[in-house]
C-alpha cells in the first residue's frame, strides 16, 4: 500500500513513471530487501557469540533454601539431579558433614541447618538477594574486561549458594560459586558479633564481583607450590591478583602495601602484560 501511494505520487509529479519502470524499481527493491535479509542471517552468529558471554547467575541457593527450610523432597531431588557437583562441594568441602553418597547424609544436611541462626540466615539471604540482575551485569562487564587482558580465559559458570559463614567464593574448574551468607552487609547482626570492623567492611554486596575476579584469577594463577616461599612471597602474589582486579574494574578496591608495590612495578614497566605479571616468579 505504501509503495503504491509512493509510486503514484512520483508518477503524477514527474509524468515519467511507466508500468515497465515501476516493475523494474520493484525488482530492484526486492533485490535490496533480499540482500538485507541475507546480511541479517550473516550477522546472527556474531550476536549469539555476544549472548554466550553474558553471565547468568544460577540460583542454586533458592533450591537449597527450599529444602533446608521445609524439608521438601522434590527440592532435594533437584539438588541431587540438576546440581550434583554444587551439592557435593557444599556438603563435602564447605560444610564437611560427610560424603554426598552416605546413607544418612540428607538427614545430616537438614539437621545441620536447623540451628536458629542458620534458619534466619536462609530467610535473610532470600530477602537481601531477591534480585541479582545488577550483579549479573557487573560480572559480565568485569569478566569481559579481564578476557581482553587474558584472551585464553574461559568465562565461568556462576551460581549462588548458602554456606555456614565459611568461604566467600569457591572455584571448581570453570565453575564459580558465590556464598551469599558472606555478603549480607557490614551491619548484619551475626557479623557484628563475630567479625572485626575491617572484615565486615568486605562482607558487602559491592565486594561480590571483585572477590569473584580475585578467586577466579587465583585458580588460573595459583600460589606457587614452593615450601621455601615466604609469607611475604604469598602476600605479594595476592597483591598481584588484587592489583589486576583494581585495574580491570578501574577503581581501587584493594589497597595494601603489596598492591602498592605492584602498582609501582607496573608503572615502571608499562610493557609488561597481565599474564607476565601473574605468571613470572620473583617479580620485585
Sum up the structure in keywords.
14 helices, 284 residues, 3 strands, mainly alpha, 62% helix, three-stranded mixed β-sheet, disordered N terminus
Give a topology summary.
Layout: H1 2-14, H2 19-52, H3 60-70, H4 73-81, H5 84-94, H6 105-112, H7 116-128, H8 133-149, E1 157-161, E2 169-172, E3 175-179, H9 189-194, H10 197-201, H11 208-220, H12 231-249, H13 257-268, H14 274-279
Parallel strand pairs: 1-3
Antiparallel strand pairs: 2-3
Helix pairs in contact: 3-4, 3-7, 8-11, 11-12, 12-13
Point out poorly predicted stretches. Answer: 1-51
Strand order of the largest sheet: 1-3-2
- Which radius of gyration do the C-alpha atoms yield? 28 Å
Q: Can you count the beta strands?
A: 3
Strand content: under 5%
Structure description:
By secondary structure, the protein is mainly alpha-helical. The chain has helices at 2-14, 19-52, 60-70, 73-81, 84-94, 105-112, 116-128, 133-149, 189-194, 197-201, 208-220, 231-249, 257-268, 274-279, and strands at residues 157-161, 169-172, 175-179. Helix 8 packs parallel to helix 11 (208-220). The chain is elongated, with a radius of gyration of 28 Å. It starts with a helix and ends in a 5-residue tail after the last helix. Residues 1-51 have low confidence and may be disordered.
Amino acid at each position: 500500500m505504501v509503495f503504491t501511494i509512493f509510486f503514484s505520487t512520483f508518477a503524477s509529479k514527474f509524468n515519467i513513471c511507466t508500468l515497465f519502470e515501476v516493475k523494474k524499481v520493484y525488482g530492484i527493491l526486492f533485490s535490496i530487501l533480499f540482500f538485507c535479509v541475507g546480511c541479517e542471517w550473516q550477522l546472527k552468529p556474531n550476536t549469539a557469540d555476544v549472548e554466550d558471554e553474558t553471565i547468568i547467575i544460577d540460583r542454586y541457593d533458592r533450591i537449597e533454601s527450599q529444602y533446608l527450610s521445609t524439608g521438601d523432597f522434590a527440592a532435594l531431588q533437584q539438588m541431587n539431579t540438576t546440581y550434583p557437583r554444587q551439592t557435593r562441594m557444599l556438603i563435602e568441602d564447605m560444610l564437611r558433614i560427610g560424603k554426598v553418597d552416605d546413607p544418612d547424609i540428607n538427614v545430616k544436611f537438614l539437621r545441620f541447618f536447623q540451628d536458629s541462626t542458620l534458619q534466619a540466615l536462609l530467610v535473610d539471604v532470600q530477602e537481601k538477594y531477591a534480585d541479582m540482575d545488577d550483579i549479573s551485569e557487573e560480572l559480565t562487564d568485569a569478566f569481559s574486561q579481564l578476557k581482553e587482558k587474558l584472551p585464553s580465559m574461559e568465562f565461568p559458570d556462576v551460581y549462588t549458594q548458602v554456606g555456614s559463614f565459611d568461604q566467600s567464593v569457591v572455584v571448581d574448574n570453570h565453575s564459580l560459586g558465590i556464598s551469599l551468607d558472606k555478603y549480607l552487609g557490614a551491619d548484619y547482626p551475626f557479623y557484628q558479633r563475630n567479625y572485626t570492623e575491617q572484615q565486615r567492611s568486605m562482607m558487602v554486596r559491592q565486594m561480590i564481583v571483585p572477590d569473584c575476579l580475585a578467586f577466579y584469577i587465583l585458580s588460573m594463577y595459583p600460589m606457587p607450590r614452593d615450601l621455601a616461599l615466604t609469607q611475604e612471597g604469598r602476600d605479594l602474589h595476592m597483591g598481584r591478583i588484587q592489583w589486576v582486579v583494581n585495574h580491570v574494574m578501574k577503581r581501587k578496591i584493594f589497597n595494601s602495601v603489596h598492591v602498592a608495590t605492584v602498582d609501582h612495578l607496573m608503572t615502571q614497566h608499562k610493557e609488561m602484560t597481565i599474564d607476565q605479571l601473574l605468571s613470572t616468579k620473583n617479580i620485585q
